[in-house]
Amino acid sequence: MSLWLAHMGAKVHGYALAPEATPNLFTDAKIADHVEHEVGNILHMEQLERSMRVFEPEVVFHLAAQPLVRRSYASPVETYATNVLGTAHVLDAVRRSPSVRAIVVITTDKVYENREWLWGYREPDRLGGYDPYSSSKACAELVTAAYRNSYFPVEKLSEHKVALATARAGNVIGGGDWSEDRLIPDLVRGFLAGKPVLIRNPHAIRPWQHVLEPLAGYLGLANRLLSAEAAFAGGWNFGPSEEDAWPVGRIADAMTRAWGGTSSWVQDGAENPHEAGYLKLDASKARTLLHWKPVLPLEGALNWLVEWFLAWQRHADMQDFTLGQIQEYERLLKR
Q1: Which end of the chain is more exposed for a tag (fewer CB within 10 A), N or C?
Q2: Neighbours of 332 (CB within 10 A)
Q3: pLDDT in tens, the chain (335 residues)
Q4: Strand 171-173 relative to strand 235-238, pairing
Q5: Cα torsion through 70, 18, 64, 255, rounded to 10
């Protein structure tokens, strides 16, 4: 998103923790060449407020989070502190920043009370969360709604001029994701090491989508919020097409074929914490009101991410490569 915004001509200030993994996308794609970068924790209220006051942003995208389900089982208090209190800190800093006109808070498809339905969840459906990660993100939705009702009410948008929305995406994949305990990075690490990859739940079905798909939705949503259109200050789903809700095993098979060589995977027979077996989003609202729709089918998305990691393996310029994929995606949008 930072590269895309800079490519579009925006002045971007990033506020984030230092990358915890090596390698990482921030370093590999030389993000700091294009954005102002400040190392900071959203739980440090004084620094966060000062950062926002000095930069005077017009649009705020809040993506900071503890984003891993299994880590949330090991560190539940850290997860709730970051995802719930951290969201409150960001919104309170916005409340004290007169420059802000639009805020997009990014949560997850896992905010819904998952009943393993065959149909997709819609924005008004009940929030919930089995594990600390999922419930903490549902709490972030509630915190956002409370701030909107209390400080940025939709019916008084013409007075306070601050439009606040939340965005919920499916399982986002793409080149440069080196996070621990995620399917795609785990597969890539195993392929690079020449070892079979352990897959916990190959039958679990998820709404997979390339990272540029929801980012296009977030940018379009922010644009409508900047126009002070009250109908857009709420919750939004950005999920893939019905045919791109694949089982984990099918993703692993497709990745193995695309990577080639000795790449392989096997099912993990160990006992693991609970994870949802079936989860889909209904993005009809975004398709109808924002005119957003996926343009990169999952087969293409998997090819793009394999191409990214193979380019990284041969020491290509990953900033140029990443920008190239962004530009190709823009061409798909124009079609």
Answers
A1: C
A2: 13
A3: 999 999 999 999 999 999 988 999 999 999 999 999 999 999 999 999 999 999 999 999 999 999 999 899 999 999 999 999 999 999 999 999 999 999 999 999 999 998 888 788 999 999 998 999 999 999 999 999 999 999 999 999 999 999 999 999 988 999 999 988 889 999 999 999 999 999 988 988 888 999 999 999 999 999 999 999 999 999 999 999 888 889 999 999 999 999 988 899 999 877 666 666 678 899 999 999 999 999 999 999 999 999 999 999 999 999 999 999 999 999 999 99
A4: unpaired
A5: -50
Q: What one-character DSSP code corresponds to residue 85?
A: I
CA angle 191, 194, 196 (to 5 degrees): 75
Distance CA 103, CA 136 (A): 19
End-to-end CA distance of the chain: 21
What pairing do the DSSP bridges indicate for beta strands 36-39 and 13-16? parallel
Cα separation, 332 vs 137, whole angstroms: 31
Cis peptide before 23 (omega within 30 of 0): yes
**Is residue 90 a contact partner of residue 42, using CB atoms and an 8 Å limit?**
yes
